[in-house]
C-alpha cells in the first residue's frame, strides 16, 4: 500500500493503492468532524471476492467486465468519484496510479468506470469495470489502477484523497522479456581500521526494456591482486514494470586496498511464475574498474615514520645534553683543582 500526496494548483491529491494486500481505510474529516473512511477491493457482481489485485489476461480486441467493491466505513452516506488510470511503481517499489488530472495513455485508458458511486453509511456498492483491449494493443503487461476518491475543501486548498486497487492487465500474444543494466559508479570505502579490508560499492541502473514485468536480482563480486572476493547478493529483487527503471547499490566487503579492483556485476531478470513468455530473458553481466588506495595504511605508515623521527630527535637531544653536562662537570672539577693547588687529573669516560 502506498500514499502519494501531490499539489496541483491549489488542489492536494493523496492516493492509496494496494499491491499485495487489501486496502486499509483512509480517514478524512467529514461533516461535523465525523471521520470518513472507506476501502476498495476486487469483487464479483455480489461483493468482495477475496482477491488482492485484479488480474486480467485478454486477447487484442477482447472485452470483459470486472468489479470492485467500494465500502463506506463512515457513519454518513458518501458520494465517491470513481476513476481509472495508468499504474506505475514509486521509487520505494510501491504500486500507485497516475494523478487524476493526468490523462491515461495505456492500460488505464482501457478501463471504463462510472463517474460516481454513492454509498450509504456502513454499506458497500459493487462498481462495474469494463475492460476493453484495443485491436492494436501490444502484447505484454499494461498496469493500471481503479480508485474511489472524495474532495474535502478548506480555507486555502482542496484535498483529494484516493483509495484504489491494482489492476494487472496483460494482453496475450508474443510478449518480450528483457532487461538492460549499466554500472553508474564504483567506489571504494576503506575501513577505519588499517588492519582490516574495506568495501567496494557498485552503483547500477536497471531498465525493463521488455513488454512484461520482471524483477531485477543482482549479484556483485570483486577481483584484486590477492584474487577473487566472494560474490554478494544485492538483496530483495525489485519489480520493474515495462519501461521502468531503478537505481540500486551492492556492497562487496572484504576488499583490500591494493590498487586497481575489478568489480563484477550480474543482473538477472526474474519473471512471475504465471508468465507465459517462452524465451527466458538473458542475464546482464558487467565489469568496471576502481582504484582502492591504501589511505589508512599510508597514514599509519606516515605516523610511524614521524614517530621514529621524533624519537631519534629526542634521543639526539638527550645525548647532546648529557655530553654538555659531562663537559661542564669536567670543567668545574678542573677549576676546583686549580683552586686547591693540586694537580688535576682528567679521566675520559666516553
Descriptive account of the structure:
Keywords: Coiled coil, Membrane, Signal, Transmembrane, Transmembrane helix. The chain crosses the membrane at residues 291-311. This is DUF916 domain-containing protein. By secondary structure, the protein is mainly beta. The protein has 3 domains: 2-171, Immunoglobulin-like; 179-293, Immunoglobulins (Immunoglobulin-like, Sandwich), CATH 2.60.40.10; 294-350, no CATH class. 13% of the residues lie in helices and 51% in strands. It has one helix spanning 295-340, and strands at 2-8, 11-18, 26-29, 35-44, 47-48, 54-58, 63-72, 78-89, 95-97, 111-112, 116-119, 124-132, 140-141, 144-153, 158-171, 179-189, 198-208, 214-224, 227-233, 238-240, 245-255, 259-270, 284-292. Strands 1, 2, 6, 8, 9, 11, 13, 14 and 15 form a 9-stranded mixed β-sheet that branches. Residues 1-14 and 18-25 have low confidence and may be disordered.
Strands, helices and their partners?
Elements: E1 2-8, E2 11-18, E3 26-29, E4 35-44, E5 47-48, E6 54-58, E7 63-72, E8 78-89, E9 95-97, E10 111-112, E11 116-119, E12 124-132, E13 140-141, E14 144-153, E15 158-171, E16 179-189, E17 198-208, E18 214-224, E19 227-233, E20 238-240, E21 245-255, E22 259-270, E23 284-292, H1 295-340
Parallel strand pairs: 2-15, 6-15
Antiparallel strand pairs: 1-2, 3-4, 4-5, 4-7, 7-12, 8-9, 8-11, 8-14, 10-12, 13-15, 14-15, 16-17, 17-21, 18-19, 18-20, 18-22, 22-23
Coiled coil: 312-339
Keywords: Coiled coil, Membrane, Signal, Transmembrane, Transmembrane helix
Transmembrane segments: 291-311
